[in-house]
Amino acid sequence: MLSFQERQINPGDCPRSLLIMGLIRRITKSREETEDLGRRLGELLKAQGSATVLLYGELGAGKTTLVKGIASAFGIPGREVGSASFVIVAEYDTLPRFFHIDLYRLETQGDIEELGVWDYLESGGIAVVEWAERLFEIPEGSVTVRIAYQDEDSREIVIEGAKGEIGHI
Q1: Contact 102, 87 (CB under 8 A)
Q2: What range does the domain containing 158 cover?
Q3: For the segment 102-136, what is each residue's pLDDT rounded down to a tens digit?
Q4: What is the DSSP string of 75-127?
Q5: Domain count, the chain
Q6: Contact predicate 67/104, CB 8 Å
Q7: What's the CATH number where 32 sits?
Q8: The whole model's pTM is what?
Q9: DSSP label at 137?
Q10: 156 within 8 A of 33, measured Cβ to Cβ
Q11: Can you give the pLDDT at residue 12?
């Protein structure tokens, strides 16, 4: 079992960047703030070159909005990133490769294996998975992001497992 260290950090105390020690909590108060948090996470992921990000949250919680932010760090315009619920996997020609995977419509391990989801997760690129609770196994070393409603505009976002420097998030 992995353990994570939590630190309370005042952004004013770190004018340029902060070190994520494994767990960070943020309250975003708008779609724009959620997308910006995603962009900052995406910059970290892009620098790492390979990662699996597992997104958890209710329908409409803001998972796709966060993905738009992550994708923007790869130069992918937000209008090109939509809920992949009908596509299931959207692959973008970036360096490193970026995969947006939405498991909402998949119900069995057989469905996941048949579509080759594990091939994307083990591809060496950046794979961001919505509805990750549908995976029957958690990939080792994954970054986990949990998004919860606070009110109509606000979300609590908890990121676990990201390591490295990231701008004010």
Answers
A1: yes
A2: 19-166
A3: 999 888 999 999 989 999 999 999 999 999 999 98
A4: T--GGG---TTTTSEEEE--SS-EEEEE-TT--SHHHHHHTTHHHHHTSSSEE
A5: 1
A6: no
A7: 3.40.50.300
A8: 0.82
A9: S
A10: no
A11: 39
